[in-house]
Automatic annotation (TrEMBL):
Name assigned to this protein: Peptidyl-prolyl cis-trans isomerase
Domain PpiC: 68-179
PROSITE patterns: PPIC_PPIASE_2, WW_DOMAIN_1, WW_DOMAIN_2
Organism: Zopfia rhizophila CBS 207.26
Catalytic activity: [protein]-peptidylproline (omega=180) = [protein]-peptidylproline (omega=0)
UniProt keywords, alphabetically: Isomerase, Rotamase
Biological processes per GO annotation: positive regulation of transcription initiation by RNA polymerase II
Length: 179
């Protein structure tokens, strides 16, 4: 069990890895409470640093075969207070304005497009989507599976290509086509 001063989790909570999904989750042994989202009282900055160091999926992605007509993408999501669900694993209540979210994601876009950091690396610690624990990997999806704006942008990408900023009801995205 990692020291809570390192993980940023409240006392008694620890990070474990699911045997079935091979993803990290949060567990409190005394109460037997388990959850995918961090518990209330978590220090998001400490948790981000701990997760990036100990639970990043970078380099460990499994080989997957695309089902017919489907593509595989990763994304980085930055939510704002007008997002469909203005909460995430990083923040229980997102209060930033859409213009602030745009400024944040523009910074990430610059880092990715200048090859300073990969989208997967940034998504692991910065994305407001629970896919962050998988480097932003959304797996395979087909037409009609995602929000229209997201899907339209994703299907236009060549393998390895990163989109411009895409706005959906969920927030602002950078999308990378993986397969």
């Amino acid at each position: 069990m990692a020291d809570t001063s390192l993980t940023g989790l409240p006392d008694g909570w620890e990070v474990r890895r699911s045997n079935t999904k091979n993803l990290p989750y949060y567990f409190h042994p005394a109460t037997k409470d388990s959850r995918w989202e961090p518990p209330v009282g978590t220090d998001p900055n400490k948790l981000k640093a701990y997760m990036a160091e100990h639970h990043s999926s970078l380099g460990g992605a499994e080989v997957l075969q695309p089902p017919g007509g489907k593509i595989r993408c990763a994304h980085l999501l930055v939510k704002h207070k007008e997002s469909r669900r203005p909460a995430s694993w990083r923040e229980s209540r997102i209060t930033r304005e859409k213009s602030e979210a745009r400024t944040v994601i523009e910074g990430y876009e610059k880092e990715v497009k200048e090859n300073r950091r990969s989208l997967s690396e940034l998504a692991t610690t910065e994305s407001d989507c629970s896919s962050a624990r998988k480097g932003g990997d959304l797996g395979f999806f087909g037409r009609g599976d995602m929000q229209k704006e997201f899907e339209d942008a994703a299907f236009k990408l060549a393998k390895g290509e990163v989109s411009d900023i895409v706005e959906t009801a969920s927030g602002l995205h950078l999308i990378q086509r993986l397969d």
